[in-house]
Write a structure and sequence with these properties.
Elements lengths: L3 E3 L14 E2 L2 E2 L6 H32 L4 H33 L2 H17 L6 H29 L5 H21 L4 H9 L3 H26 L3 E4 L6 H14 L1 H34 L4 H33 L2 H19 L11 H26 L5 H29 L4 H24 L4 E3 L3 E3 L6
């Protein structure tokens, strides 16, 4: 991308004709078709591989460790909270490190570490071992989101950034839908086909996911581009992290993105963690087994929530390329506030006509937040320290996950089972109010000269 000027709303810098052009998408010069396909494959795989843990964890707690149901909400929240502590400690470092050595190796390593976590996790014989093995898994989940965000932003020219983020969100949704409708059924499929016990089937399913994750890591390393943004200075990693934090003080729109990340990542993990747990808990009160209760949860999650997210993601991206991108944030968080608020008002999910329309609204709001936040942070982040900014962006997301899952687990155990959704409705509403303030006071895109990409840097000696 050459030249300078305003970056924003897809209407600033013209596209650089030296970049790959596919339909409505303009890519950074040096990015080829294989790189684009690999990026989409990695994006589609990332959330599927990370959310599988939360969706089938009730099997581990119930059928392997025999944890009483009245203790599962607290334990689930504690495990997720501990995971996010690890992520918080690593994410800023990971983003800054990628600004020095590039994205490919870190992205691929994340999938391989995740695979190792899946292999050892179901072998836990106590809650202590469960926490230890979750640390391995958490390390992979610290690497993957930052590199996924960085690659998405590195690959796109700003003129089509909203639509590109929307398309990658569609692939995110496809991956999660595949997980919810197919991969999450692996324990039941293995049990029925091979005649093993439910506990053994869960172990084999986790091992299969571990192998798949390692293979994905190899493919990602082979297919991603060595070009990863603008020239990176040989600066200390802590200085790069500091620059990412300082940008929020200097640019209110980046501060908005950081705050939005708290809600957006909290949204995703609350749905992944407590949606199936809500169904299992209500189902148990009605005499259902874990598999019987998870069946409807898998349908609503994989079809109603994820399918609506798929359909709405590209539309939200188109909106973000047509309007001021802070306005795009306002639209997105209006939808998510309504979706999570209404979900928190539902009593029995098995016997209500409102569950499907509310799931659809929640899915639209959830994906709209991701797309709007991605488009705005990509617009505002200077390419020179993009990895650092996205590392801090994801770090705030990790803080959001730790806070939301911890408080959500307490609400799940002590208030009512879908209270975590009401909590997220309130948090999304606070982001909405802040976005309105930023739009009124600091709405115009930040002037910036475009920066040319450079080949992947080698580690500093």
């Amino acid at each position: 991308m050459a030249g300078g000027g305003f970056v924003g709303g897809g209407r600033g810098l013209p596209p650089d004709p030296n970049g790959l052009h596919i339909g409505p998408f303009w890519f950074t010069p040096g990015i080829n078709f294989l790189n684009v396909v690999t990026c989409l494959f990695a994006v589609g795989s990332a959330l599927a591989m990370m959310t599988f843990m939360n969706f089938v964890q009730p099997y581990v707690l119930t059928d392997i460790l025999n944890i009483p149901r009245d203790q599962q909400g607290k334990l689930t929240g504690s495990l997720a909270g501990m995971q996010e502590v690890v992520v918080i400690l690593l994410m800023g470092f990971v983003g800054a490190l990628s600004d020095k050595i590039g994205r490919r190796i870190i992205f691929a390593t994340g999938f391989i570490i995740l695979g190792v976590g899946y292999i050892v996790y179901p072998l836990a014989e106590s809650t202590t071992q469960l926490f230890i093995y979750r640390i391995i898994f958490a390390t992979g989940t610290a690497l993957i989101p930052v590199m996924m965000s960085a690659c998405i932003q590195d690959y796109s020219q700003d003129v089509s950034r909203g639509k590109w983020v929307g398309l990658t969100s569609v692939f995110n949704g496809i991956g999660v839908s595949l997980m919810a409708t197919t991969l999450a059924r692996l324990p039941a499929i293995i049990e029925a086909r091979y005649g093993v016990s439910e506990a053994e089937a869960v172990i084999y399913a986790f091992w299969a996911m571990g192998g798949i994750s390692c293979v994905i890591g190899i493919l990602v390393f082979c297919g991603l581009s060595k070009i990863t943004g603008a020239a990176r200075q040989r600066q200390p990693i802590l200085k790069l992290i500091g620059e990412g934090l300082r940008c929020a003080k200097e640019n209110p729109k980046i501060a908005l993105c950081y705050y939005a990340a708290v809600a957006t990542r909290g949204d995703v993990v609350i749905v992944g963690t407590y949606f199936s747990a809500w169904f299992v808990a209500i189902g148990a009160e009605q005499g259902m087994s874990t598999s019987e209760a998870i069946g409807p949860a898998r349908f609503y999650f994989g079809v109603a929530i994820t399918f609506s997210a798929l359909l709405f993601a590209f539309f939200q991206g188109w909106i973000c390329d047509k309007v001021n991108r802070v306005t795009g944030m306002i639209i997105a968080f209006t939808l998510s506030t309504l979706g999570y608020g209404f979900m928190g008002m539902i009593g029995d999910p098995f016997h209500t006509m409102w569950i499907i329309p509310v799931c659809i609204l929640l899915g639209c709001g959830e994906t709209a937040n991701v797309v709007a936040g991605g488009a705005l942070i990509g617009q505002e982040a200077p390419a020179r320290i993009r990895g650092s900014i996205l590392g801090v962006f994801n770090l705030f997301g990790a803080v959001g996950i730790a806070f939301c899952v911890g408080l959500g687990g307490w609400l799940f155990d002590h208030w009512y089972y879908n209270a975590p959704f009401m909590m997220m409705g309130i948090i999304n509403a606070s982001v909405l109010l802040y976005a309105i303030y930023v739009r009124l006071k600091h709405g115009e895109p930040t002037p910036r000269v475009a920066e040319a990409p450079q080949p992947e840097a080698q580690p500093a000696q």
